[in-house]
Amino acid sequence: MVLQLDKLNKIFNAGTPLENHVLHDISLQVSPGELVALVGASGSGKSTLLNVIGLLDVSSSGELRIQGHLTQGMSEQQRTQLRSESIGFVFQFHHLISAFSTLDNVLMPLMLRYGKPSAEQTAYGEYLLNEVGLTDYMRQPTNRLSGGQQQRVAIARALVTRPALVLADEPTGNLDTQTADEVFGLFERFNIEHQCAIVIVTHDTRLSSRCPRTIRLTDGRIVYDGASADSDGVNAHL
Fold first, then answer.
1. Are 45 and 22 in contact (CB under 8 A)?
2. Which domain holds residue 117?
3. How many structural domains comprise the chain?
4. Cross-strand partners of 221
5. In this structure, what CATH number is given to the domain that contains residue 208?
6. For the segment 159-180, what is each residue's pLDDT rounded down to a tens digit?
7. Which of 16, 20, 204, 238 is paired with 145 by a 20 to 30 Å CA distance?
């Protein structure tokens, strides 16, 4: 399994009058090559769960394994290393660095880990930009790109380390319908071609329905985990 959660809980301000139990006994597994939509109303715990899975935050209890590695008890250095080796991120806001070229933005995760990228790593970054249709923009600064093009750069950046797991938080939230469809199509394509597991948080039911599997959260609890084609009917009765 790429991802395993067993009775994971997240509590903010535990033991104080402001205690907030955000995630309740979350258990799930994600296999290599799965494309999963994580859905739920605002405040349901989606972003908190994604942050915990992405090792950007720690759970209060329960177990989290990434590629079989138990993350509880890891030092911050160990968590950072596992995150950089195994997980790619795509956010609603691209977090690109306008002072760098499009190619350098894609190579940034490798630069942070190794310093100057090797010729092989650079070639792979160029390959990914070609795959997302941005060959002609490799040497341009990212502030000259449209929103959809910037999100394509972010997807290439997430894949440049060849991660086993890609986490995407509302990756089409700022895009028009046509561009959102095109960007989501890239996720579908790379999911198949690279066999990386992808978990996408989205409010867009058109896009979540294109994922074979949907996980729905309500008040920090999983209320549905199954085929996306069946999720609306099941949850209408919850």
1. yes
2. 3-235
3. 1
4. 218
5. 3.40.50.300
6. 999 999 999 988 877 778 888 8
7. 204
